[in-house]
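A reminder from the course coordinator: this example appears on the midterm review sheet, so study it carefully.

Given structure:
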């Protein structure tokens, strides 16, 4: 027992010796911690927790506000862009397609109406007056036939009245509406060779604003030679103001009634309608006029005192020259050029890059003259020495437009160009063909090919410089009846950028407004963020 007790006492002593260093190390660590970590009071801990919660809450509110503001701006910009994109196509279709095409077609229709007013109306009025006078004289005295020298002199005065009626007794005209109604001459001719005519010799500029008639000629012919069928037309100088025939002869020329285009046309109508047919008025084919050395055409009415072609004796004719028709086209082109130049933005229309011209669409008198160029805004498009077809005109722009119309419609008397589906309305005589755009390079190929150029209302077209649009043109036409059997076609061709300049300017204006709106939204976003940051700081301080 004594031994075991000593052993246990010895073991406890050794264990106590081994545990002593660990206890000391723990005591030193506790002392170290107490030195580096200051004591924190309960009040301080609560305040720190409250401040942290306030900062987190305010920061969260500011973050939500900033995110909402930026998201609102992005959505507003995206929505605006979407609305602009969605509506731009509709706006361009309505403004730059429907309205522009309507204006284009309205312009060419108005021109056709003006030509009808300036050409057909004066001719019909002259025929009414001269033939009405002859018919009244014959009814009053059946022996009066209009072939005697005194009869021809009397008819000549009536012709003078009709030529000078729009201007009164003046030899100078400065009013476009009246100056435009100018006939070259009025004639009454018989198949037996007698003829009475009157013509004015006038000078004018390339517009209708001023016409000055310096002299006049009275034409007279006696009965034709029965051997060769020729008659001699003698020209006398006449007073422009009084219409009195002077004794001065200005020339003489042979005239063959049986080959006169006007008389041949009336005989052709006689064959078509028969001797019982009612008299009909019609325009001749283009030919050299007797009254002046230039090409023109004559509106004719038969001299038939019995009221049918059974007693056809000759014709009454009112003449107009191609040069005169070109003056009308030039006047219309000048008006269009001025309007485009005054528009905002202005567009400079040039004679080399645009044209207004008239084509013989349906020629009953001579079908071989279908497609003949009758007049053009640029007088150089015609030839003084020979008749020219529109597709062969010396003017490139006239030739180009004519070739593209033929490439698309094959012939001038195509049903679309004639607007056959609308001809049932006898009261309406003028119809417009829808305008379309085409490529100049394709039109000038041989053979010509119709290919639409880049649409002027498309973004690709509007984003380009206008200088790159030289190959894109736009053309419209209007057909109208000049008599019951023949038609003329009025054509207007312009560069497509004549209308694209306005379209592009509006496009740029819309884009500028859009950029301004975007900048304004960004500025408002910055102001909102700065305000929110201020609110955040104040909230934290107050809290």
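Designed residues:
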């Amino acid at each position: 027992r004594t031994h075991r007790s000593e052993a246990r006492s010895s073991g406890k002593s050794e264990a106590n010796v081994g545990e002593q260093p660990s206890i000391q190390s723990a005591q030193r660590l506790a002392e170290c911690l107490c030195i580096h970590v200051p004591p924190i009071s309960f009040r301080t801990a609560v305040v720190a927790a409250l401040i942290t919660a306030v900062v987190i809450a305010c920061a969260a509110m500011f973050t939500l506000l900033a995110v909402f503001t930026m998201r609102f701006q992005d959505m507003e910009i995206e929505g605006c862009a979407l609305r602009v994109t969605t509506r731009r196509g509709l706006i361009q279709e309505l403004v730059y397609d429907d309205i522009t095409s309507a204006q284009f077609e309205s312009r060419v229709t108005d021109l056709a109406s003006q030509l009808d007013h300036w050409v057909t109306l004066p001719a019909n009025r002259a025929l009414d007056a001269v033939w009405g006078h002859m018919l009244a004289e014959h009814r009053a005295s059946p022996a009066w036939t209009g072939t005697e020298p005194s009869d021809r002199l009397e008819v000549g005065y009536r012709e003078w009245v009709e030529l000078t009626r729009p201007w009164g007794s003046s030899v100078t005209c400065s009013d476009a509406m009246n100056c435009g109604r100018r006939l070259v001459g009025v004639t009454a001719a018989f198949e037996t060779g007698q003829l009475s005519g009157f013509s004015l010799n006038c000078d004018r500029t390339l517009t209708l604003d001023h016409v000055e008639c310096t002299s006049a000629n009275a034409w007279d012919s006696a009965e034709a030679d029965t051997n060769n069928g020729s008659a001699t037309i003698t020209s006398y100088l006449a007073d422009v103001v009084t219409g009195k025939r002077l004794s001065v002869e200005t020339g003489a020329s042979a005239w063959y009634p049986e080959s006169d285009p006007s008389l041949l046309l009336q005989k052709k109508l006689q064959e078509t309608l028969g001797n019982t047919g009612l008299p009909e008025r019609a325009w001749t084919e283009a030919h050299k006029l007797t009254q002046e050395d230039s090409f023109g055409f004559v509106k004719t009415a038969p001299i038939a005192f019995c009221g049918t072609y059974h007693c056809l004796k000759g014709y009454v004719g009112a003449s107009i020259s191609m040069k005169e028709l070109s003056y009308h086209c030039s006047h219309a082109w000048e008006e269009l050029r001025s309007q485009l130049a005054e528009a905002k933005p202005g567009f400079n229309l040039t004679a080399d890059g645009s044209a207004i011209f008239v084509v013989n669409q349906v020629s009953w008198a001579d079908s071989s003259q279908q497609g003949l160029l009758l007049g053009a805004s640029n007088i150089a498009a015609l030839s003084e020495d020979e008749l020219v077809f529109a597709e062969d005109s010396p003017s490139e722009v006239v030739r180009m437009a004519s070739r593209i119309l033929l490439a698309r419609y094959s012939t001038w008397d195509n049903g679309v160009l004639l607007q056959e589906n609308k001809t049932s309305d006898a009261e309406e005589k003028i119809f417009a063909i829808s305008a379309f755009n085409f490529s100049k390079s394709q039109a000038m190929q041989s053979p010509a090919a119709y290919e639409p150029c880049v649409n002027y209302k498309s973004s690709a077209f509007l984003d380009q410089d206008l200088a790159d649009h030289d190959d894109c043109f736009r053309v419209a036409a209007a057909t109208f009846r000049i008599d019951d059997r023949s038609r003329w076609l009025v054509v207007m061709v312009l560069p497509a950028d004549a209308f694209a300049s306005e379209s592009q300017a509006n496009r740029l204006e819309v884009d500028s407004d859009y950029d301004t709106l975007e900048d304004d939204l960004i500025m408002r976003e910055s102001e909102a963020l700065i305000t929110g940051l201020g609110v955040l700081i104040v909230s934290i301080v107050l809290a």
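Residues 194 and 421 are 45 Å apart (CA to CA). Residues 423-427 have pLDDT under 50 and may be disordered.
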